[in-house]
């Protein structure tokens, strides 16, 4: 893992997992199941020793440059529950395990590794785009959301990928942030992510 955001705690049966992007937890699709994932990542602590073994890789949807991709997501099993909290940085708060379908002009907010509190608006549904991934090259996506900030400034920064986008009015999850640039951000509808990984959101 380089730099990214652990977006949410999710469950499958009796086990708890952290949810993020595949490109955050499984760079270049090269890690094996049960690979240990550490905190902090090498970008945040270059040359230093990781301070904690938080999780082990469980499942991910591989990214492929030869076909259209619809999700970028992965989960890793939490080794010790006391080491990971499902709470978000205030004022972001998840209040329901039920996802909320995205709509144009819907407001969402998130807390990420590089942006403690980001707030934006969904501008476009079902966006097709190409994203560049280190070690994989250009990846074609379809069915993404396109978002922009409310104040015209940059919505997020490098390292925010994997953040959970939550509607502040309902407290429901809407999407998983996948990429940011100077103009806005791309995200995947969270219901598609949860279905692909067969997990449920955990409410703090």
Can you walk through the features of this model?
With about 200 residues, the chain is mainly beta. The chain is built from 2 helices and 12 strands. It has helices spanning about 20-25, 190-195, and strands at about 10, 15-20, 35-40, 50-60, 75-80, 105-110, 120-135, 135-150, 165, 170-180, 185-190, 200. Strands 3-4-5-2-1-12 form a 6-stranded antiparallel beta sheet. A hairpin with a 4-residue loop joins β10 (about 170-180) and β11. The longest helix has 8 residues, at about 190-195. It is globular. The two termini are about 25 Å apart.
What does this entry show, briefly?
With 204 residues, this protein is mainly beta. It is built from 2 helices and 12 strands; from the N terminus they run E-E-H-E-E-E-E-E-E-E-E-E-H-E. The longest helix is centred in the last third of the chain and has 8 residues, at 190-197.
Give unreliable regions as ranges. Answer: none
Shape: globular
Indicate the percent of residues in helices.
under 10%
Strand content is: 35-45%
User: Strand-and-helix sequence, N→C?
Assistant: EEHEEEEEEEEEHE
The class by helix and strand makeup works out as: mainly beta
Rounded to an integer, what's the Rg over CA atoms? 16 Å
Q: What kind of sheet is the major sheet?
A: 6 strands, antiparallel
Task: Please give a handful of descriptors for the protein shown.
6-stranded antiparallel sheet; 12 strands; globular; 204 residues; mainly beta
Q: What secondary-structure arrangement, pairings included, does this model have?
A:
Layout lengths: L7 E5 L2 E6 L1 H4 L10 E4 L12 E9 L13 E5 L28 E4 L7 E16 L3 E13 L14 E4 L4 E9 L4 E5 H8 L2 E2 L3
Antiparallel strand pairs: 1-2, 1-12, 2-5, 3-4, 4-5, 6-7, 7-8, 8-11, 9-10, 10-11
């Amino acid at each position: 893992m380089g730099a990214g955001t652990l977006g949410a705690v999710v469950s499958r049966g009796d086990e708890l997992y952290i949810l993020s992007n595949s490109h955050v937890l499984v760079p270049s699709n090269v890690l094996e199941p049960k690979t240990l994932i550490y905190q902090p990542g090498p970008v945040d602590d270059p040359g230093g020793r990781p301070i904690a073994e938080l999780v082990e890789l469980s499942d991910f949807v591989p990214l492929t440059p030869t076909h259209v991709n619809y999700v970028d997501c992965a989960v890793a099993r939490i080794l010790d529950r006391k080491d990971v909290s499902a709470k978000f940085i205030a004022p972001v708060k998840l209040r329901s395990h039920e996802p909320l379908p995205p709509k144009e002009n819907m407001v969402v907010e998130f807390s990420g590794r590089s942006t403690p509190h980001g707030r934006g608006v969904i501008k476009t549904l079902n966006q097709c785009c190409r994203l560049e991934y280190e070690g994989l090259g250009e990846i074609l996506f379809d069915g993404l959301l396109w978002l922009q900030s409310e104040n015209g400034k940059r919505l997020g920064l490098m390292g925010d990928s994997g953040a959970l986008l939550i509607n502040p009015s309902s407290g429901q999850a809407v999407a998983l942030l996948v990429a940011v640039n100077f103009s806005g951000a791309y995200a995947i509808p969270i219901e598609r992510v949860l279905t692909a990984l067969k997990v449920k959101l955990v409410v703090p």
